[in-house]
Amino acid sequence: YELLCKSLELGYERAKLMLARLYVEGEVVEKDLAKAERYLRELAEKDDKDACAYLANYIFNNVFPNSSQEEGLSLLEKAAKLGHPNSMGQLGEILGNYCRDEESNFWFEKAKEVGLQGVDEAQSRYTSETYPKRRIELIRYYISTKRSNIIICKFSIRYLFWLYRKFDKRI
């Protein structure tokens, strides 16, 4: 911890990434979520792909509860565009869950191009015959917990009805 602080004092900005992780975990130092978030946001503003990815995932996991899921998605997309392989795969999965198939496939293909392992398996989950049922369950979950915004909710309801018509309510 002391070496990271000294590195930061000497101008090594990437030390903020490691310090932020320590502040979130609270094992080596006292937990300080405000400082962790500040460090990650500072690095993300400077286009640090790792900081964008960590910040997005902390937002998705409600570590920083004052941030929105939409902001997390935006940060994850920024990390992916900056070349963060895991963010590419994760973005493919998230966009697939939002029924944004074209964008989902784009990010899965990008993840494959940079050599991310397991992409074919993840991508196949969104094209298999069981996927419509999984989407319906996810949509029902989002609607029941009111964890989605109005646009996603309206889109999800339309998609739910489309799936019911397409599969004759066999799902």
Compact description:
The chain is mainly alpha-helical. It has helices at about 1-10, 15-25, 35-45, 50-60, 70-80, 85-95, 100-115, 120-125, 130-145, 150-165.
Summarize the helices and strands and which ones pair or pack.
Elements: H1 2-9, H2 15-25, H3 33-45, H4 49-60, H5 69-81, H6 85-97, H7 101-113, H8 119-124, H9 131-145, H10 150-166
Helix pairs in contact: 1-2, 2-3, 3-4, 4-5, 5-6, 6-7, 9-10
Protein architecture, described:
This protein has 171 residues and is mainly alpha-helical. 71% of the residues lie in helices and 0% in strands. The protein contains 10 helices and no strands. The longest helix is centred in the C-terminal third of the chain and has 17 residues. 27% of the residues are buried. About 4% of the residues have low confidence.
What labels would you give this structure?
globular; 71% helix; 10 helices; 171 residues; mainly alpha
